[in-house]
């Protein structure tokens, strides 16, 4: 059975890359004293951190001989001796498939992917619901304009007023459903301010 390199982005296999060595994750040695057990445990954990895959836990990799790292990820083409803890090749250190300074993981947990997909589906459903409501809004446009006409400044062209009301209400509705800020709030504020100013001047003239 061929060996496969488990490093992110590496496609090397023992069948097509016979000139490259493949090395299993170091085992914990328990029968050569506590110091040997401690250092081999540290090395095993350090390898998993260097491989940097969330699904590769200690329990997951236990007994899985097919999990290998190819020689392309070591400066000398192979791991250093277990006692040479200061050797860079004590762990995989080249072409690890991520930024070694930040160790940004490229593989998300399944639950994180499900949550993102659920959020995306929810937004799509909200958008579709907004389209339906806008279609209903357009069907009720004449009545809506009659209801909102008193809140608009006097002297506006009637056709333009109807168009403006519909477009503003459409954008406000979709923006509220998608939880995104909209510039139409400012338009409404300006319209209300113009209405207040107009009424104020009218009252002053009456006085």
TrEMBL record:
Which intervals hold domain THAP-type? 1-95
GO: which molecular function terms? DNA binding; zinc ion binding
Q: Name one Pfam family in it.
A: THAP
InterPro entries per UniProt = THAP_Znf
Keywords assigned by UniProt, alphabetized: DNA-binding, Metal-binding, Zinc, Zinc-finger
> In its UniProt entry, what is this protein called?
Uncharacterized protein LOC106070049 isoform X2
Natural source organism? Biomphalaria glabrata
């Amino acid at each position: 059975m061929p060996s496969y390199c488990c490093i992110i982005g590496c496609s090397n296999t023992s069948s097509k890359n016979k000139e490259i060595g493949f090395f299993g994750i170091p085992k914990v040695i328990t029968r050569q004293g506590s110091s040997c057990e401690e250092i081999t445990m540290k090395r095993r954990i350090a390898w998993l951190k260097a491989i940097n895959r969330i699904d590769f836990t200690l329990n997951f990799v236990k007994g899985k001989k097919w999990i290998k790292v190819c020689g392309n990820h070591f400066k000398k083409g192979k791991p250093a001796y277990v006692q040479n803890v200061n050797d860079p090749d004590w762990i995989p250190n080249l072409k690890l498939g991520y930024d070694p300074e930040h160790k940004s993981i490229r593989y998300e947990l399944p639950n994180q992917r499900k949550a993102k997909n659920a959020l995306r589906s929810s937004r799509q459903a909200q958008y579709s619901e907004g389209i339906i409501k806008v279609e209903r809004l357009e069907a009720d446009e004449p009545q809506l304009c009659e209801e909102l006409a008193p809140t608009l400044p006097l002297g506006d062209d009637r056709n333009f007023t109807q168009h403006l009301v519909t477009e503003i209400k459409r954008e406000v509705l979709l923006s509220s459903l998608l939880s995104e800020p909209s510039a139409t709030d400012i338009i409404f504020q300006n319209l209300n301010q113009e209405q207040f100013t107009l009424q104020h001047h009218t009252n002053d003239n009456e006085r």
